[in-house]
Design goal:
single chain; mainly alpha; 2 domains; 6 helices; flat
């Protein structure tokens, strides 16, 4: 179910609660505040990094460096100011691989409890 569907299910009382990614929630609050005014946040989980950008093919060191530089340049590009504001983005960073260790733990937990659902 997509986020709007989840929120519609909550407001229609088909479900009591639902999980919504905080970034998606913030985007909806910015772009559709009337829709988001129908629900309230009752709890949060620990913060985790936004999922990584992935490529379908090997980039190589030069390609990876070029892609990283392109993302880093977004913050200073005046022609992207409107897009940054619409997407609630200030800048990109190049994360350390260890920053994503939390996803390995989430995956392990989901594997451990896979039969519960």
């Amino acid at each position: 179910m997509h986020v709007r569907g989840m929120i519609e299910a909550i407001t229609a009382r088909r479900v009591d609660v639902g999980a919504v990614d905080s970034y998606v929630c913030d985007l909806l609050r910015l772009h559709d505040p009337q829709f988001m005014a129908q629900v309230k946040c009752i709890g949060t989980t620990s913060a985790v990094p936004i999922p990584p950008v992935v490529a379908t093919a090997e980039l190589g060191a030069a390609g990876l460096a070029a892609l990283q530089q392109a993302f880093l340049a977004v913050a200073a590009a005046p022609e992207l100011a409107q897009a940054r504001a619409a997407l609630l983005l200030d800048r990109f960073i190049v994360p350390a691989p260890a920053d994503y260790a939390v996803f390995h733990a989430i995956h392990a937990s989901s594997e451990r409890y896979a039969g519960v659902w």
